[in-house]
Amino acid sequence: MLTQEPGAEGGRVRNARAVATLDPVDAGDHVCWLVGPGDDFTATARAFAADGALFGDKVLLIGAPETRWSLDGASREVVVDPVAERADGAAWNATALLDLVRQEAEAATRQGFRALRVLARMDRVWPRGASPQEIARHELELDALVLARGAVVVCAYHGADFRPGLLEQAIGVHPHQLGTQAEVPGFRMYSAGTDCWSVSGVVDSDSADTFRTALDELAARSATVRLLCEDLELVDAAGMRALVDVACKAPGRRIVIEKADETFRHCWSLLGYDVPQIPVELAP
Amino acid sequence: MSENSTTRPESPAQDPAFRHELYPYDGDAQFLEGAMSFIHDAHAGSELVLVAVAEPKERMLRTELEGTDAAEGVTFLDTAALGRNPGRLIPAWRDWVSKAAEGHPVRGISESQWSEPSAAESTEFGYHEWLLNLAFAQSPAWWLLCPYDTATLEPAAVEAARRCHPLLLNGGTHGPNSSYVQEPYAFPELTASADHEELPYQRGRLAAVRAHVTACASRHGLEGTRLRELLIAACEVAGNSIKHGGGRGVLRAWVEGTDLICEFHDSGHLQDPLVGRLRPTVDQVGGRGLWLVQQLCDLVQIRSTAQTGTTVRLHTRLPG
Question: What positions does the domain MEDS occupy (chain B) (predicted)?
Answer without folding.
Answer: 19-166
